Amino acid sequence: MSSKYPTLPPEDIIKALKKCGFQKVSQKGSHAKYKNYQTGRIFIIPMHKEIAKGTLKGILEQADIELEIFLQYL
Q1: CATH number of domain containing 34
Q2: Is 50:9 a contact under the CB 8 Å cutoff?
Q3: Most buried of the four, 25, 32, 63, 68, by CB within 10 Å?
């Protein structure tokens, strides 16, 4: 059974999440912190070559964004 979460580069994830109202707060090394100032939600995105399916799932859970909504912004 395959996962419904895609493997994506961090640039694609950031582009979609910016459309959802998130802004970059800071970056330390290869990890960037993003925050939605309306909801107060914060999450970290590793700036690696590709983001694994499980990591993407965790990011979307922390951001409180449904996968279907996220995929519309890609």
Answers
A1: 3.30.920.30
A2: yes
A3: 63
The Cα 49–Cα 64 span in angstroms is 24
Average pLDDT across the chain, whole number: 89
Q: What is the pLDDT of residue 11?
A: 93
- Cα 74 to Cα 60: distance, rounded to the nearest angstrom: 14
Question: Quick one: tokens of 29?
Answer: 């090394």
Number of domains in the chain: 1
**HEC letters along 3-54:** CCCCCECHHHHHHHHHHCCEEEEEEECCEEEEEECCCCCEEEEECCCCECHH
Residues 24-33, mean pLDDT to the nearest whole number: 93
Q: Is residue 1 part of a domain?
A: no
Two tokens, residue 69: 């909504």
